[in-house]
Amino acid sequence: MNWFKRHRLSSGVPVIGGPSTPPSVRRPGLQYKRDTRISTEDCCRVIPKGYVESLHQNSKSTLLYGKNNVLVQPVKHLEPMPGYLSLHQNTDGLIIKWTPNQLMNGCYSTSDSSSDSVTSQDKSIYWEYAMNVSVDDIVYLHCHQNTDTGGTIVLVGQDGVQYPPIHFPKGGHLLACLSCLENGLLPHGQMDPPLWSQRGRGIKSPFQGKYFQN
């Protein structure tokens, strides 16, 4: 069975991005490509520890959802690659992050120094693929649910540019993520229409053709 859902985000209180999101890892404007002037050496040595730690529960943000092995195709000529998808809530609002698995254990291996150099060069490109998205920058959320293969989410920005599709593994992971997102929007934001429709004696069922209302 296939479901298609189209959402539009509503945020009742405008949020201005603050300094908590490092400019070196934030993806402006929902682009497939990213222009950065940070050296790969600095990126590999300085960012990984703090960035990976920020993906977990900490004093500065609340982890609302986390799922490993979520596939994203960061650029069209590459195959979808697995990574860690997470939803965070902090003083700036809701943040969606996706981090390639290659970065989750840091940028350097524990082998000899010559191998470390190669590993650093190979892994530095994955910082170009990491997603760090403020939900306030999202206007639409397209969802394709397939009970046999999982589901897909496509984020669309205020400028109409799409993020790479996010592919969930088989199971209820897509709906779990959307439920956490919907709860995180409250009380100042909402999905319109809501994620679940109520039928019968309080039983909630997903329905098609949904979008967010600004």
Please tell me about this protein's structure:
The longest helix is centred in the N-terminal third of the chain and has 15 residues, at 40-54. The chain has a 9-stranded antiparallel beta sheet. A two-stranded antiparallel sheet has the order 10-11. Helix 1 (40-54) packs across helix 3. The protein is α+β, with helices and mostly antiparallel strands. The two termini are 30 Å apart. Residues 13-46, 107-118 and 200-214 have low confidence and may be disordered. It is built from 4 helices and 11 strands; from the N terminus they run E-H-E-E-E-H-H-E-E-E-E-H-E-E-E.
SSE layout:
Blueprint: E1 2-11, H1 40-54, E2 62-72, E3 81-90, E4 93-100, H2 101-104, H3 113-124, E5 131-134, E6 138-146, E7 150-157, E8 166-168, H4 173-185, E9 189-191, E10 196-199, E11 203-206
Helix pairs in contact: 1-3
Average pLDDT, rounded to a whole number, is 71
Largest sheet: 9 strands, antiparallel
* Class from helix and strand fractions: alpha+beta
Q: Give the oligomeric state of the chains in this entry, treating copies of one chain as homo and distinct chains as hetero.
A: single chain
Q: Low-confidence spans: pLDDT under 50, at least 5 residues?
A: 13-46, 107-118, 200-214
- How many strand units? 11
Strand residue percentage: 25-35%
What descriptive keywords fit this protein?
single chain; 214 residues; alpha+beta; nine-stranded antiparallel sheet; two-stranded antiparallel ribbon; 11 strands; 35% strand; disordered C terminus; SGSM1/2_RBD
